[in-house]
């Protein structure tokens, strides 16, 4: 940076030449270099600084303000000069020109860092001189100066450069004054914004005692909706800063007020931060208070509020999650992994209270038949039910088993919509006493066993009807008649049986009546999250939602589905299965792409059994989808395949070849990602499968038109070779080596021969095969490249020999029969006519970290 003093008339001006080129890396350049230039004034540098700091020329004062950091560095060796500079800065901060004050304020953070690191002898300099300037500028009449001071304050707080005493005695008081009810509107909005942003940087004690009361007051500001909007947008940060107790005591009531604000922008801001607020509350408050409040936002009359609420619905549901209950735990890097059996059992539901056994057992039942099945199979049944079942005769119990096995066939979707059963009055006294409930539960279980004969008759009716249903002639003529006959006979059997087990029918009918979500014979009820939240989430795939809420609502549903699945647990996957299948078949490729990117995480949540049954078919569909969708599967292909059983995983060996073909041949990153994944996938298959399937893909990628794809493919080839020798498949390794020599060493294109040199170098670096095999099968072909006519090939050969082979202990040993041949080749390359070849043949091993890819690009 060149600075010189020029006299224009009677005014001396600093001419700044090339100031835009000034940067922190230019150690020899200083903005204030003019202070060291002897001028006509014969002043000392300190006097010259003071002269130009208070010059009548605005530009001079701007340069001084802009170069304050250099000024402090120049005068920091002398304490007296340092204090003089501080006084000059304080005087300069009172400059009437806003641009000067702005320049000065922008230099405060770096000066504070310099004072903290380099001037421990002046521990109070920043607090005594510079901190008052920052606070004063918060009330500056110029908007630009205030913005600069606000940014500087936040930077200083973030880097912990402000002492706790200054925060409590200087920063907080001025912010409280600016946010007072009688304060100027513009200052109040800015102060609220600063309070919200600095909440995460202050201690919990300071926020609770000094800022929280004012924040609660501002949430109800009836004069300016801008103030309330800032509070609503930052509500989650404030809750996180003060903790659970203060949130539930002070902030939740204010949050309710903001969610019912007359301005839709406030309600929208509340919906956007709902997850952060929920995260800091207890499960009881989250379920009893926040859930109904969120439902009100979802049904808000304003479309923009509903849109924001639906976007936050999945994240809000995720706050109910307890990964340990699903047998999972979260690693430090944020990824999910399977937990140990001691941590949790993912397949066992939480046991219901004894007095509410039947209700808890059928919460997720889609029909009375499924409820009976649960009563027979649930290991968590109470003692009274078990005793009732034991009282049954053995033959009756066998009949009960036949009924339970056929219950799923009887109570299907068609029969659910049959004419209703006769109205049976409910015995309300059963709900008033635990003892009566237990007795009723025992009577129910006994009644079930007593009516096994009726169950067998129902099964016979089904079997006889099925014979007629299989007849194509009968199907076309009297399907409706047969259905009505079956329905009528089934209805009569139920009437006969209900006289003997009144309580059972009453319970089943009541549960059937109270189950609002029945689809395909499966219930969508669960007890992990409030049911209305799940109902609203499942409705996000409804096409009507796209018209009334948001055209991309299905994408938001897909994005948050893994979090919802983690919350519900794999035992409640049936609640989400239909929704997931609907999203996977969505016409918008962005929705399918979102699912493709997260299917591996969902597989971890569901476990291997559910993954094989429900996710594998969708995964197969994604493999044949657009490239925009396939890339999501491809990026996490290894993560998904490793979760499958070996036999299921082997089915994908042939399908991996389909990834080589893309919709657009220019999409080289797709093939690059395939090579990266194949390097990881090698460990999932045995050497024979790798040789038969993956070897062909690797060799195809090695011939790609794009350099980046070829280089990563060469690493894949080396990994395959290492796989063979690590598993003692030496025969496969030798066959692969012969194929590499034929394909690359004797390639007619120089790129192939250069690739052979790189592969040999990588083989030696990774030590992926025995040295005796290398010197026998690869080294002769490698050394023969010294006579290659293309310099680029000889450059790679020189690097491989000089920087890799000769550094290995095997080639350093005295008497090595192959050492002489290698050294002769290196000597020949050192005297090569090409400068690059001779350079790499003579270069020392310490320079062996040069990027081969960059070299090829330069060539």
UniProtKB/TrEMBL annotation:
Protein name, UniProt field: Putative WW-binding domain-containing protein
Phylogenetic lineage: Eukaryota, Metazoa, Chordata, Craniata, Vertebrata
Domain Putative WW-binding: 411-442
GO molecular function, one term: protein phosphatase regulator activity
HEAT repeats: 211-250, 778-801
A UniProt-annotated Pfam family: WRNPLPNID
A GO cellular component entry from the record: cytoplasm
Keyword entries, A-Z: Repeat
PROSITE patterns assigned: HEAT_REPEAT
């Amino acid at each position: 940076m060149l600075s010189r003093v020029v006299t224009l008339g009677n005014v001396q001006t600093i001419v700044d030449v090339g100031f835009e080129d000034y940067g922190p890396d230019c150690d020899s350049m200083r903005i204030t270099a003019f202070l060291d230039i002897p001028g006509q004034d014969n002043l000392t540098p300190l006097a010259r600084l003071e002269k130009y700091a208070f010059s009548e020329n605005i530009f001079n004062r701007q340069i001084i303000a802009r170069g304050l950091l250099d000024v402090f560095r120049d005068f920091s060796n002398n304490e007296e000069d340092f204090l003089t500079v501080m006084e000059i800065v304080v005087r300069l901060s009172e400059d009437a020109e806003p641009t000067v004050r702005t320049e000065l304020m922008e230099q405060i953070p770096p000066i504070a860092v310099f004072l903290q690191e380099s001037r421990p002898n002046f521990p109070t300099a920043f607090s005594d001189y510079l901190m008052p300037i920052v606070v004063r500028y918060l009330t500056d009449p110029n908007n630009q100066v205030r913005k600069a001071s606000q940014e500087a304050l936040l930077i200083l707080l973030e880097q912990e450069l402000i002492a706790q005493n200054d925060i409590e005695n200087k920063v907080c008081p001025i912010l409280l004054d600016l946010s007072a009810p009688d304060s100027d509107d513009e200052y109040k909005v800015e102060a609220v914004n600063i309070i919200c942003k600095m909440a995460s940087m202050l201690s919990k004690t300071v926020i609770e005692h000094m800022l929280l009361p004012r924040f609660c007051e501002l949430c109800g500001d009836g004069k300016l909706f801008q103030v309330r909007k800032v509070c609503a947008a930052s509500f989650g940060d404030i809750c996180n800063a003060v903790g659970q107790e203060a949130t539930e005591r002070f902030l939740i009531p204010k949050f309710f007020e903001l969610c019912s604000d007359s301005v839709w922008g406030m309600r929208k801001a509340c919906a956007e931060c709902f997850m952060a607020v929920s995260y800091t509350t207890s499960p009881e408050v989250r379920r009893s208070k926040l859930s109904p409040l969120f439902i009100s936002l979802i049904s808000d009359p304003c479309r923009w509020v509903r849109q924001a609420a639906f976007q936050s619905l999945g994240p809000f549901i995720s706050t109910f999650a307890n990964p340990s209950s699903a047998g999972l735990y979260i690693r430090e890097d944020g990824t999910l992994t399977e937990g140990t059996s001691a941590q949790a059992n993912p397949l066992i539901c939480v046991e219901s209270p004894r007095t509410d056994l039947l209700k808890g057992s059928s919460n997720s039942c889609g029909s009375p038949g499924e409820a009976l099945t649960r009563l027979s199979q649930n290991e968590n049944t109470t003692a009274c039910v078990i005793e009732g079942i034991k009282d049954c005769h053995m033959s009756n119990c066998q009949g009960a088993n036949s009924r339970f096995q056929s219950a799923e066939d009887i109570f299907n979707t068609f029969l659910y919509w049959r004419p209703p059963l006769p109205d049976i009055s409910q015995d309300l006294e059963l709900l008033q006493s635990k003892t009566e409930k237990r007795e009723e539960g025992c009577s129910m279980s006994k009644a079930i066993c007593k009516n096994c004969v009726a169950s067998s008759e129902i099964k016979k009716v089904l079997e006889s009807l099925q014979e007629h249903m299989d007849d194509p002639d009968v199907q076309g003529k009297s399907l409706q008649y047969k259905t009505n006959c079956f329905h009528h006979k089934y209805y009569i059997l139920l009437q006969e049986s209900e006289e003997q087990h009144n309580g059972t029918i009453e319970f089943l009918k009541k549960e059937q009546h109270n189950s609002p979500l029945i689809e395909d014979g499966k219930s969508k009820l669960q007890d992990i999250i409030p049911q209305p939240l799940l109902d609203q989430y499942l409705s996000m795939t409804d096409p009507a939602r796209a018209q009334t809420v948001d055209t991309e609502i299905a994408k938001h549903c897909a994005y948050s589905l893994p979090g919802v699945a983690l919350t519900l647990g794999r035992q409640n996957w049936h609640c989400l299965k239909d929704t997931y299948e609907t999203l996977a078949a969505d016409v918008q490729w962005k929705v399918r792409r979102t699912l493709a990117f997260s299917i591996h995480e969902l597989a971890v949540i569901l476990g291997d059994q559910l993954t094989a049954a429900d996710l594998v078919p969708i995964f197969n569909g994604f493999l044949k989808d657009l490239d925009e969708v396939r890339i999501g599967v491809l990026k996490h292909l290894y993560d998904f395949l490793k979760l499958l059983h070996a036999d299921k995983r082997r089915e994908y060996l042939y399908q991996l070849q389909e990834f080589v073909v893309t919709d657009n041949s220019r999409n080289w990153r797709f093939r690059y990602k395939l090579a990266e994944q194949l390097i990881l996938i090698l460990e999932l298959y045995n050497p024979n499968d790798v040789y038969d399937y993956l070897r062909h893909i690797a060799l195809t990628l090695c011939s790609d038109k794009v350099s980046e794809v070829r280089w990563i493919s060469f690493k894949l080839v080396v990994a395959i070779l290492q796989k063979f020798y690590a598993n003692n498949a030496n025969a496969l390794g030798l066959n692969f080596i012969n194929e590499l020599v034929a394909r690359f060493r004797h390639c007619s294109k120089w790129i192939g021969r250069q690739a052979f040199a790189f592969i040999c170098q990588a083989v030696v670096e990774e030590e992926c095969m025995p040295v005796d095999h290398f010197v026998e099968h690869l080294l002769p072909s490698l050394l023969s490249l010294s006579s290659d006519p293309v310099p680029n090939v000889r450059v790679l050969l020189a690097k491989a020999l000089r920087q890799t082979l000769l550094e290995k202990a095997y080639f350093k040993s005295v008497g090595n029969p192959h050492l002489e041949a290698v050294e002769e080749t290196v000597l020949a390359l050192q005297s090569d006519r090409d400068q690059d070849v001779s350079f790499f043949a003579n270069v020392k091993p310490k320079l062996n970290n040069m990027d081969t890819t960059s070299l090829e690009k330069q060539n």
